[in-house]
Input
Amino acid sequence: MLMKKEIPVEKNRDYTVDITGLTSEGSGVAKIEGFTVFVEGALPEEQAEIRIVKVLKSYAFGKLLRTLKPSPGRVEPSCGVVKRCGGCQLQHMSYEAQLQYKTHQVKDAIERIGGLKDVTIHDAIGMKDPWRYRNKAQFPVGMDGDVMIGFYANRSHEIIDTPLCAIQDTVNDNVIQTVREFIKKYDISVYVESTGKGLIRHIMTRKGFRTGEVMVCIVINGDSIPKDKALVEMLKGSVDNLKSVVLNVNKKQTNVILGDRNIVIYGEEAIYDYIGEFKFRISPLSFFQVNPIQTEVLYNKALEYADLKGDEVVFDAYCGIGTISLFLSKKAKKVYGVEIVPQAIENAIENARLNGISNAEFIVGESETVIPEMYKKGIKADVIVVDPPRKGCDEKLLEVIAQMGQEKVVYVSCNPATLARDLKYLTERGYRVMEVQPVDMFPQTVHTESVVRIERG
Output
């Protein structure tokens, strides 16, 4: 009778291990007698002392106790709460090492999941300054003896008080401090998730990096806020170029941050910013890329891969608020943007009007439904651009692309795993992946985006 193989690790026991890799979540990978152990905070090329904290059938989790031999890429994190906050997974890696990791993540997914071995994958394009790059922040507000404003701890709804955040614009430091002082001075209640009681739930800030315009949005569990004029005056005194203060009403017991109703208590209902030469209107509910510097890099690469000469028709699937569509409109004869979210299409139409773009048309609906209907009507594209959410393209859309025999596809991805899956589908149906360009949109985190040039035959 065959004996069941015993698991070679025990919970609460300490081990010395060599870290050989990193997961897509940024945890170190070690092997103990061939058994996989994931160690948060450990880096490749390190020897570490760990304690096993959880054991499952085929792998375990270890806690990093001590780094015996540090990685050449290890650096001291700049943030004091980085180990508790769930926002930055890679602050303990040098930026050069982060870019190498992200390039490897894309390459590994394409080879392992996509089964593609000879694809040209360029090194990830990073930022000159990988700090303070985010133009939007959302801070939950709570109370634990004192006012807590910050971010949720990893895999929980425990608020980690964060007076400043090294990847958010510096305006947030002033906003957090000001709202904290306002809550204390006027004894304003804060939301308690377990009871659904209390007023202030979240603080959201948005900043136009090119225009400098700032919006502060206070999410409330009610229809108004006491002393709103005092709040506005305090914010005006601490925030340069404040253009908008908005109350967002969310009375539902839900994890969704924003409600549907906005009340402007100061200034305008929106701010403006630019990506490249294009101007965009940004309201509290608008989707807008959080790193406008790298967004321009990403979109210019997509435009380069589309290789437009001026007489092409382009389909932009999952077009959102039309940001890529506007870039494509510079060199295309006609762009059709398709998006399932009606408000996003409204924003796209407004953004096209704002920029005087007349050769972009936006349609509400599922890309996998709308594009075949357009094809049947005789509207054919020379290039299809897809920019799907993290779950990747709907298989029906990939099927439609293959059936139409589309000669050129540009794929913009925010998830290497689903990108690799979709590339496998297309290559099995006569397409070739010509090149892949990772772009680091989110320094200090594990996330990366990629642009892929795909051709028929």
Observations:
- The chain has a mean pLDDT of 95.
- The two ends are 54 Å apart (CA to CA).
- The longest strand covers residues 59-69.
